[in-house]
Design brief:
The chain is mostly helical and 247 residues long. The protein has a domain at 85-240. 60% of the residues lie in helices and 0% in strands. It is built from eight helices and no strands. Helix 2 (60-72) packs across helix 3 (74-80) and helix 5 crosses helix 6 (171-181).
């Protein structure tokens, strides 16, 4: 009996990028026998480097335009990005986003812990907040390390699952896809930080009372659930549009 690993298409196989059917030997003007899509739609030439990698001289402009493409057109981005170009540039793209997100989460965690202390739910010796920069720095570093570890674990599990199911998603390809998926943490971090800091400011200026604490916590919990769904949805978009990639 053939194993799942033996049924994984070879790197040289031309797959239909819609359904995964092997198109080896078909002329460019033919259609996929399985789904009817033109074989030309699955040509390796339909994929290219993202602007961040193609024109590194653009600096912040290329970075921001690539980020916008990942955030607002994820299906198009992953359907047209080269998946086998290494991680030299994509890793830097991820690192910058992780750094920004880590600082945002660090700031949010600092103000959230401050709220707990202020409400008397934690002992005063839990933390000293007379050095906020140091506390935020430590929280940011911890968050950055967690993002790296989580991404590596997710990539490994995804590659194993793909191998088991017979999909062509090697570990380096998954990692490259998750490097660009790092941009999707940005709106999550911005919304979370805005909620925590905004509530802290509102309390400080007496715009809301301390009795709104449960509402604040419910809001954060809701945001966590929505964020998890959003991150998984965008992750699936990326993997779905990379598993049959021919370049």
């Amino acid at each position: 009996m053939a194993t799942a690993a033996s049924s994984i298409p070879a790197e040289t196989d031309l797959l239909c990028e819609t359904c995964g059917y092997t198109l080896n030997g078909l002329p460019p003007e033919a259609n996929c026998p399985e789904c009817g899509k033109p074989a030309s739609d699955s040509s390796p030439q339909t994929r290219s480097l993202p602007l961040w990698e193609k024109q590194r001289g653009l600096g912040i402009t290329g970075f921001m335009r690539t980020t916008a493409a990942v955030l607002f057109q994820p299906t198009k981005f992953y359907r047209t990005v080269i998946t086998r170009a290494g991680r030299t540039s994509s890793r830097w793209f991820a690192a910058v986003h992780w750094a920004i997100v880590s600082v945002l989460f660090g700031i949010a965690a600092y103000f959230h812990f401050s709220w707990f202390l202020m409400m008397g739910n934690l002992p005063g010796s839990f933390a000293r907040y007379d050095q906020p920069v140091l506390v935020i720095l430590v929280l940011s570093i911890v968050t950055f390390a967690l993002l790296i570890g989580t991404t590596s674990l997710a990539a490994r599990l995804t590659s194993w699952e793909a191998t088991y199911r017979g999909y062509r998603l090697p570990f380096p390809v998954v990692l490259r896809g998750l490097d660009y998926h790092a941009a999707h943490y940005l709106p999550v971090a911005l919304i979370g930080a805005a909620t925590v800091i905004g509530y802290h400011i509102a309390l400080k200026h007496n715009w809301v009372s301390g009795y709104t604490g449960p509402l604040y916590l419910y809001t954060l919990c809701g945001e966590v659930l929505v964020a998890a769904a959003y991150l998984f949805w965008t992750y699936w978009i990326g993997m779905r549009n990379m598993m049959y990639a021919n370049a």
